[in-house]
Every structure is written in C-alpha cells, then in structure tokens.
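Materials and Methods. Structural model of Transcriptional regulator (TetR/AcrR family). The 180-residue sequence of Transcriptional regulator (TetR/AcrR family) from Lactobacillus hominis DSM 23910 = CRBIP 24.179 was retrieved and submitted for structure prediction as follows.
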Amino acid sequence: MAKNNTTEQNLIEKTVNVIDQNGYQDLSLRKLTKMIGLTTGAFYKHFESKDDLFKKVSIELSDQFMQHLNLKDDQSAFDQILIIANYFVHQTQSHPQIMDFLFFNSNTSLINKNINLTEVPILKKIAILSRQANNSNLSDQDFFLQTWAFIQGYAQLVKNEITSYDAHLVRETLTRLANN
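The predicted structure was written out as tokens:
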C-alpha cells in the first residue's frame, strides 16, 4: 500500500511540474500520462479520472501554499489576510500557470463547488480570517467576496505588468473594505 501512495504522490508532483511549465488548459489525459511517463491504464490504477487527479493536485498545492505562508496565531486576522494577499500576488507573478489552475479554473479550482472546504486548507483559512477581520456593515460572505475579488484582480494587474505591487495600496484597500 505504501508503494501506491508513493506512486500517487509522485504522479501528483509530476503533474504539478507539467502544469507549472505548460498550463492545464489543453492538457488531455493522454498528453499528461505521456509527459509523466505513464500509460493510461497505469494511471487508472491510482486515480479514477483526470478530475480526481486534479482535485488531489489542488489540495496538494493548497497545502504547499499554506506552508509557505508561515502564519502565526498571534497575528491579527487582518495581518494574516495581508500576508496571504502578498504571497498570492507574488505567486501569481512567479507561477502563473499554477495559480491559474489552483484559483481560476472553473473545472478543477479550489472554488469548485464539488470540493469540500475542509479538504482545502487555504480556503478554510481565508474564510475564517474574513469572518474575523470583517468590521464593516457587509455580511461575512460579501466581505469575503470583495476581499478575494480585490486580491485576485490586483494580482492579475501585477502579473500582466499593468502596475507594480504596492504593499501600502493593498493595506489601504483591505482596511477600507474591512471598516466600510
């Protein structure tokens, strides 16, 4: 059984590398298995489908995202959101294919309704922090949506070199959202 888990983890890691280099948009199961050196028959011994693999890749990437954040319990929820925003923007610049796969692809992204929030550490953390940081007249859901929309939109502007990252602007915007 451990060998299967090792093989499965190896396939997940190879898939992350393929997505990081080539994107996921035109990645068929046949292309993917060829790129990672596996037959489609062997693939199905470890995953039910490409979507099953992509779900597990999303969870793995979310775990990695959380580990790199290094959030501390003694930091305020607002400060933790700022850390997430900063890291999100920088990752969007340095690994745009991964971030697009993880957060923007409607079929396999973390926002997909078929993925349980408790399985995905980054979404669970953002939802908790949003509730804690919300000092506005907005509902927790609206505050989360506005905050997340700003972070994602700003990251896209920075990635496309329309603007440069400005930590002060991010802090000011999120402060206004939290206290509006």
